[in-house]
From TrEMBL:
Residues 1-36 form the signal peptide. Keywords: Signal. It comes from Flavobacterium hydrophilum. This is Outer membrane lipoprotein carrier protein LolA. It comes from the Bacteria.
């Protein structure tokens, strides 16, 4: 039987999979649309944008940490994501999500189930090409924050603060490696005291990818239940 803490942890992690991790992916691809509020921050984000756009594809291994002292929750997980344009393959907490540009395929080995759904442009939680370029057009204030030395790497943080009082996030800190212009980490602090941190352990670019890298192949899952939502 699950304890209350286990239930809270699982619920928090699953909410993160739908929202926080999606936001992290969007952050990696959506800097061009941030409205200017801090020139230095804008210049740095523009440099990151140019660097990211210069790559044919990006492969990232990451660590995700969830902490809430009040609920005595400390949860660490690892995952990886491969991105090319608006397509991606995400592996996290035993679940694989493939987005081929039109449909999302969520593969859950534990349940032997595959859920297929189309992208709804009106869905605020949906990752779409347009939202990847307009995510920060409104709703955030941002400015340069602290600089840290992490194992010889100079990490410049940019703070993003939601302008809506309904947003449950207090602030977001985005850490950027000043030399490489790559994302080092993302720290999200909620108004309820929950702190989530996504740290990039490995950032590779222009890797050789399979022709079917972002294609769902049903024959690989002969015994799985295929759940088509659309």
């Amino acid at each position: 039987m699950k304890t209350k803490i286990q239930e809270i942890t699982n619920n928090s992690i699953m909410k993160m999979t739908k929202k926080s991790l999606q936001m992290a992916i969007l952050l990696l691809l959506s800097f061009t649309s941030v409205q200017a509020q801090d020139k230095k921050a804008k210049d740095l984000l523009n440099q990151v944008t140019a660097k990211i756009k210069s790559y044919d594809n990006i492969s990232i291994d990451f660590k995700y940490s969830l902490n809430n002292a009040k609920e005595n929750i400390n949860q660490d997980s690892k995952g990886n994501v491969i991105m090319k344009g608006n397509q991606y393959v995400l592996n996290f907490m035993g679940v694989t999500k493939i987005f081929d540009g039109q449909k999302t395929y969520t593969i859950v080995p534990e349940d032997e189930e595959v859920t297929i759904s189309k992208v709804n442009e009106k869905d605020d939680n949906a990752i779409t090409p347009s939202k990847m370029l307009t995510f920060f057009n409104s709703g955030y204030k941002y400015n340069m924050d602290i600089v840290q030395n992490v194992k010889g790497r100079k990490i410049q943080y940019i703070k993003l603060v939601p302008t809506s009082g309904k947003d449950q996030r207090k602030e977001i800190l985005l850490g950027i490696d000043v030399q490489t212009k790559h994302i080092y980490n993302l720290i999200e602090t909620g108004k309820n005291g929950t702190k989530t941190t996504l740290t990039v352990n490995s950032f590779k670019t222009n890797q050789p990818l399979s022709k079917n890298q972002f294609t769902f192949v049903a024959s690989k899952y002969p015994k799985y239940y295929i759940n088509k939502l659309d």
